[in-house]
Amino acid sequence: MSDSLLARHKAVLPDWLSLYYQEPIEIVSGSGRHVTDADGNTYLDFFAGILTNAIGYDIDEISDAIRRQVDTGVLHTSTLYLIRQQVELAERIAELSGLREPKVFFTNSGTEANETALMLATQKRRSNQVLALRNSYHGRAFATLAVTGNRGWSATSLSPVKVSYVHGGYRYRSPFSAFSDADYIAACVDDLREVIETTTAGDVACMIAEPIQGVGGFATPPDGLLGAFAEVLDEYGILLISDEVQTGWGRTGEHFWGIQAHGVTPDAMTFAKGLGNGLAIGGLVAEASLMDDIGANSISTFGGNPISTGGAHAALEYLLAHDLQGNAAKLGSQLLQGLRSHDSALIGDVRGKGLMIGVELVAPGGKKPVPEAAARVMELAKQRGLLIGKGGLHGNVLRLAPPMTLTESEATDALRILTDAISQAEREL
């Protein structure tokens, strides 16, 4: 990438809009699971625009759907008019949701989807009290920052809601980490009940939870935890919102929605990212009794526009027709197995499901986080032609989330590059 573009970026964009790599790259083209930067270097992309390019790059079926709408001359009409593509996509998502009486509302991002879900729940329950999980991330707007349980991403303590945080999402550093699955769940349920009884007025609006914590480093709780939470929530009439922005659309391999691993049907699910394969789209699907309980006028200017919903519908049908959920399960298992068998004292934990894998790097012989090791592994992987992400409370977790069209040979190549990079970083540190 040219120094001039970096200088221009720094001059006109916020200081907090960080860039990856010592020498940031400009991605100018892509095909399949590979991208090419402005200097002509090609990389295997294992972060996919932060899990957004779920199908990959230059997919004919998606591009054709977008072109068909562009060719009509109508890029936008707003929700004040009927939008056929919006209705058709909503029907498909409602069918796939598993909810009893689902209705769908489209937004432009996961942040906006979660803001809408919080608005619906607080309105429904006439309460501004919310439960969230420690180490969580739900967006960068006012209410979603408030329910984010990760200091690195929570820019302010000012809030329109009153939040109480509970244990459970991030097991590796939990005080209950040594417990069996059953005992861990029991301890977290006891904590939830105590939090409700001691830090709230009882009439809590909702709990919002990620089935796997994305920004939090793909932290993966035991299956059934959120289902056990739901039993307590039901006693108090508290709604459950599943944040599926990163776990939706089959990425976890074993289920279409991440919450399904927990044996419970939530009151609402929010979504974004992979649905549009790069198009700006988000939304939520919720029980009609919740979705319709707004006593004021409301529209969405850009949410559900014909370009985004038409392209997203094509992406969703491609994902289903090619069983990308099954592919995520198969290749995710290959990657998890390979990483867990790699002998490196830097690796403290390998976790995740499907094509959503976190590798937590620690100082050898303990659990002290080493964010500098994660940064170095990322640089070394890039030098070898592999792009990965990072996250976690301490910035020491490597995040792997390639397009779900990943091939077996590409998974093998990525595993080789990544383990080589980890080994080199270990030798250097």
Automatic annotation (TrEMBL):
Its EC number is 2.6.1.44. GO terms for molecular function: alanine-glyoxylate transaminase activity; pyridoxal phosphate binding. It is an enzyme of class 2 (transferase). Keywords: Aminotransferase, Pyridoxal phosphate, Transferase. Its cofactor is pyridoxal 5'-phosphate. InterPro entries: Aminotrans_3, PyrdxlP-dep_Trfase, PyrdxlP-dep_Trfase_major, PyrdxlP-dep_Trfase_small. It comes from the Bacteria. PANTHER family: ALANINE--GLYOXYLATE AMINOTRANSFERASE 2, MITOCHONDRIAL, PTHR45688. Homotetramer. Belongs to the class-III pyridoxal-phosphate-dependent aminotransferase family. This is alanine--glyoxylate transaminase. It comes from Saccharopolyspora karakumensis.
